[in-house]
User: What shape does this take?
Amino acid sequence: MTTENAGLAKELGYTNVRAFLEGIPAWIKEGYPVYATNEFVAKGNIVLLDLRADGAAVKGRIPRAVVVPYATLEKRVNDIPRNAPVVLYSDNEEEVMNAYEDLLFDGFKNVSLVPGNYQGWADWEYGVVVDGPIFSNEIRWVRQLGKGEVSVDEFRKATKGELPDVFVIDARTEEEIAEFGIFTNTVNIPLDEIPKRMNDIPKDKRIFVHCSTGARADLAYHELTKNGYDVKFLLLDITDPECDCEIIKPKLDSES
Amino acid sequence: MKKIKLLPFIPIAIMLALMSFGCAKDMSKPTAAAKPAAVEAQKQPDNVYIGSVTGKSNKAKTISITVGKGDAAQPYMLKFDDKTTGLEFAEAGEAAIITWEQRGDDKFATVIKPKLAKLPEGVTEIKVDELYQLIENKAPMTLVDARPPFRYNPSHIPGAINIPVPVLKEKGAAVLPEDKNSLIVFYCQGVT
Assistant: This one.
């Protein structure tokens, strides 16, 4: 889209058009800061961290912020969900940049800063500030399901046989299933066999697909959607205790 | 803040459609204006898929790639083996050119090449450090994030304004600076 927009600008008569082709990933890789919009800070599904110390947050803070003074960030780092967009602010530019770099170094992929730091927020015309005592510094965040994803709850119901209108496919290889077992009420069709085994998949049912992490299930989701199925996939490491689906061992399935 | 005025639609059609993907991750949005002839003119040989890689599974030895944009987008699944070359270019979100051959019921990828962005004539590339220096020095420029808002909102380069491709197509110069000789830098999710 960079090239497309740059081409448009040239067409419109702009003479000094340049393209930063490496884009955002290269920018972040250098440790340069990225910012969220104020609206996103106000309403996004984010983890918002207030890095200030000494009770500054009691006098005024951004709504929904969790107070994690920079000195304690390292201790709290495992409380921060890895998939959440994490937005940081402080009243000190150097401090917020240090925290940003620490989190990137720690492998966080979605970290950004509040524009203008705390002061920038407070100066923004819609920048509501709350004050008063802070009762919790617990970090809470719930992932919203992406396109095509099935919730773990619904998936579990299907494997328990409680959803008769659902057909569950395990897209892992036969070898993996021989080793780890298969969920109840689930049929094994390895991802690479799905295109030629469409006849084994009922058209009149909803389809749930899973694999070991969700990567193959995602591919199967696209393939089945293309073929007219009503599909959802499970984006979850199935060894995650959250899954908690009954497993049949050893392998038992309906394959020939 | 930028005032956005509605201008009559400015036709720019054909060259757009010929342009490369640039930001593979975000090419799913339909391109409202420039669908027509040019797309078909760029016909591919039958055994080549050019598009955005949507995923690769080393366990299933399978790559999936989406060809085309918007409503016309079609996902395809291909197998690969030890003889497939350029597997490193088949990463989710990358734009790739995959040559394949039919073996039995399966399509096998034989050669995978990255699809590189071609710059329109007269547009020069800017590297990350130079861009950083311009921002640090508060050099006069308009920095434009060309990604859709759902990517811009959580995370963008300081000072960038958000003009996704469809918006620029629709509003043209009304969303760009008045001075046509001023510096404009566009960026997106990158092609690396």
User: Anything to note?
Assistant: Chain B touches chain A through 71 residues (CB under 8 Å).
